[in-house]
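Workshop exercise sheet. Pairs work together: one partner reads the sequence aloud, the other fills in the structure field after running the prediction. Swap roles for the next sheet.
Pair: D.N. / O.F.
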Amino acid sequence: MTIEVRRLGDNDAQIGAQQFTTSLDNSTGKPKLKFNSDLTLAGAKALVLNISYPGYVPYSRRLDVTAMVFVEVTLTKVSAFNAQSGSFNSLSGISTEGFKVQPADKVTSITIPKSLLPTDTLGIVGELANFDTANPAQAQYFPGNHTDSAGRDVVSVAFDYINLKTDAGKPLSEAVIAGSASGAELVIIERVLPASSCAVLTRLGDADSVRDGFQVPVYSFNSSTGLWDALGQGTLYTAGTPVSAAPTLDCATKSYVLEVAVTGTVFKSQWLNFAFPLAFAQPTSYCATAHVKNIQGDNLAGIHGLVYSQTPGVFSPKYFTTDANGNAQITIQAGQGPEQLAAKLSVVNDGLVTTDFTFSPSCSNPVAQEITVDRARLCQIQGQTLDTSGAVLAGYPVIAESSVKTANTAGLFDFAITDKQGMYWLNVACKREFNVLFFRFNEGYLTVPGINVDAKVEGKEVKDDGQIASLPVTKIAPSLTLISAATYAVNSKALRIQISGSRSNFPIDYTLRVVNAGKVVTTLTGKLTDTSSTGEDTTSWFYTTGDITQTVNLGAGDKFTVEGDLKDVKGTPTQIGFGVQVPVVLLP
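Structure field:
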């Protein structure tokens, strides 16, 4: 999984970015990722969080810089498919020779001219998912913010995720630009709008009185700013016929399709948004206060959620984050109207929690509306990890495990990866006891037990203010480099020896011998490099592996072992096979 955080300054200029990679925890049978790391926020006015994992729709959210925010993310799977090739006609009569992207549900289709692509392109593969913004379970995947790059609030009627590649594996964001001669060839997008959008279409009406027919704006997502860029407009059709600019929409019996014709630059973004900019002749500020607490009555700080109108198109959805007291002051703009606006409020809490919510024009001191969720109030455990020589252990895994084994708290609660200074931060439930575990390769855990963030300095704590408990520096003995596996495929004669150790031990000099019945069968010498990608700002697993591979005939025998010497980059030697034998597993 890749996690990217972009820091934006004045005028949304990017002032920095950090990227992290980490793995999923599956100890509960339901894959989860719990991740936190220190971020450099100097000068940042907003953050854009992008999370991606192969086979899933990515997550993107624009966040205000606040003292604390917990973002709980749910990713949804997406299926891959192959596009059709041939000649295709659009609703407006445009004929295109090329490829048509249309998954089985046929909600969205994209027709791409062959002339836009490299001449050797034989097909298109990819992923496409469509979402209904009126459905809270689907709206949680809405990327960025409900604001365009011109600063206007927008009301979305539908949005799509698109990830397409040529049969050669080249993303269309690159292939189209390389293959286009003039840039004038048009990509045709046809989107069946959800029935729930009919009310918004009726309420907001034609977006462009100059053009013929009923026009709906289309936006592409800018993952650098978390905002939507205007892409163009589409024309509304029903039963193959254009809808007039002043329609009487038959929301009960008719289906509506939006046709959009755009250039190949549409593939620079993985998201499309079919939305109306919301403007009012006499805008009125409506306000509300959300007070989020748990079932124990604790105020929940840093809770991230969304409010949206019960009547589509009355106001634009708005994200919020609760402060230290569990409160969020939320202001929206709407047309001058009733004394109260009916809304819904949703937060992700290991699933979606949705409740009724109300806005009023009384903004001086709105009454707090309580939202109760079943989750612990979160505190933090922090500390630093060094090796026994005093050197920083950066990228080191640290785990918080609940001490009390119950149905809700057993096992892993959170984990963190130390930063470049060896610092770690663990999110834990306040006033509950946790063990902090430091994983040591092939040696089991080093455990600091009984840490309870409760404003009492006890046990191994050096500080505890009721929100953060600090631990003393933990020193870990350097990990030796070892052979974690050795296999020999009898049929292909492929010998593979897997070397494991901390990243800081690589490159490894090795001299290894395969022995059978006391006789050396073959000798391997060389230098093994850690080839996994880390990058300057990439935090990844502290331990890694590298493979020594060779095609060699070991001859007859069924009890091969490996012996020899490894020397890491620090000059630390490890003898292999002297004491405990390292067997070679025979494969077919």
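Discussion prompt: The chain has three helices and 41 strands. What would you look at next?
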